[in-house]
Amino acid sequence: MDGDQPLEEDDDPEKTLLDRMDDRDDGFKDITSSPASSKASDSSTTRHAEKIIEDVGDWRNALKPHQTRLFDSLVIASHKLVRHLVDRDTADRDIVADYRRRGEIIVTELQQAQAREYEQYLSRMQAWKQQAADKLEAHAKELGKHAKDSERAKIERQKAKRSWNEVQSVFSRLLEG
């Protein structure tokens, strides 16, 4: 390519690959846009992908050497980018899985600790309840004893009062005559 030779349309360094892509209507631009409701079979998807790969191969073969190097550089860069994105996605999933696993362990440990504390509390409450019941039973026995003693004392007082009344009655009769 001497500076004296006229440039053909394909040799124009100012002409970009994008211009060529815009001129083509091969469905290449629409590979990611398919309606969500479409139920294309796997074989038609495979045929479509094969056609795109074939078209890209034809397109690459039509490139000039400097364009081929640019294309290869872009493919390598996009490959590295996709690999990086996949690695990041995998790392993100690993982080989420690890966080979930560790969180579940923490929750399980907290539940077990709570269950142990509950059992200890329940045991202490049962012991306190038993002590309270024992004390109440002892107090009930003591009150029963006091009630019996009080009843006996009442009977004794009544007997003493009757005796006293009898003694008074005897003294009154003696004094009277």
What's the arrangement of secondary structure elements?
Elements: H1 17-23, H2 42-61, H3 65-176
Region (Disordered): 1-47, 141-160
Biased composition (Basic and acidic residues): 14-29, 141-158
Biased composition (Low complexity): 32-44
Q: Can you offer a commentary on this structure?
A:
This protein is an all-alpha fold and 177 residues long. The protein has a domain of 94 residues. Helices cover 79% and strands 0% of the residues. It contains three helices and no strands.
Low-pLDDT regions = 1-10, 16-38
Helix content: over 70%
Give the helix tally: 3
- Quick one: biggest sheet? none
Structural class: mainly alpha
Rg of Cα set:
53 Å
Number of strands: 0
Shape: rod-shaped
- N-to-C series of helices and strands: HHH
Mean pLDDT: 80
* Euclidean distance between termini CA atoms: 172 Å
Region (Disordered): 1-47, 141-160
Biased composition (Low complexity): 32-44
Biased composition (Acidic residues): 1-13
Biased composition (Basic and acidic residues): 14-29, 141-158
Short description:
By secondary structure, the chain is an all-alpha fold.
Give descriptors for this structure.
single chain, mainly alpha, 3 helices
